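Here is the promised in-class demo. Please do not try to memorize the tokens; focus on the logic of going from shape to residues.
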């Protein structure tokens, strides 16, 4: 039988296994390495969701890179709200730096629009987005990720950093919600 997990009141089935995820992350790291070969790169990791992705991406990146972590709060339950008021922990020293925002998932893209608006106020040299998952069918935003791990259908997923009401972030694989 297919691998399943239960989180609180919902059941999820295996969608992307760890091996597939890690293989794709290696490819993304290689592309970033080439694109930022002679640039001062900062990976700006959006907590909490991107913690696993950012760690594996950084480990596969051979070269000088800075890691920075910020926190936004925008999501409750299984429905996106796209409301971000502040980037907690954003360094003021972003000038001359090339920033790649590392996100677990871009859904409607409204959270990312806000993140970019707030980041632009620090005047970095450039800004791009690297998202492990991208729900292209749900996307309404202004800034599409340049680096995408997997373009996925519009369904709710958990694991590998992604949560359902804060549960499931520790799972090695990514699971999709089984509709009731
Ligand atoms: P957006 O503003 O709709 O793009 O949503 C962005 C945020 O919502 C992401 O950074 C995630 O934290 C969360 N999110 C969106 N889709 C999912 C999902 O399928 N599972 C878990 N969290 C999600
Ligand atoms: Mg997130």
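The designed amino acids, position by position:
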């Amino acid at each position: 039988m297919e691998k399943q997990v239960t989180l609180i009141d919902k059941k999820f089935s295996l969608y992307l296994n760890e091996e597939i995820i890690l293989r794709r992350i290696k490819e993304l790291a290689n592309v970033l390495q080439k694109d930022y070969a002679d640039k001062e790169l900062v990976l700006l990791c959006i907590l909490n969701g991107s913690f696993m992705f950012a760690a594996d991406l950084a480990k596969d990146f051979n070269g000088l890179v800075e890691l920075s972590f910020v926190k936004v709060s925008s999501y409750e339950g299984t429905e996106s709200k796209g409301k971000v008021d502040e980037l907690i922990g954003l360094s003021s020293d972003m000038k001359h730096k090339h920033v790649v925002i590392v996100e677990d998932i871009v859904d409607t893209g409204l959270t990312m629009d806000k993140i970019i608006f707030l980041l632009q106020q620090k005047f970095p040299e450039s800004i791009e987005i690297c998202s492990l998952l991208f729900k292209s069918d749900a996307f309404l935003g202004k800034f599409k990720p340049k680096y995408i791990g997997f373009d996925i259908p519009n369904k709710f997923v958990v694991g590998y950093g992604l949560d359902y009401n804060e549960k499931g972030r520790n799972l090695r694989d990514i699971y999709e919600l089984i509709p009731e």
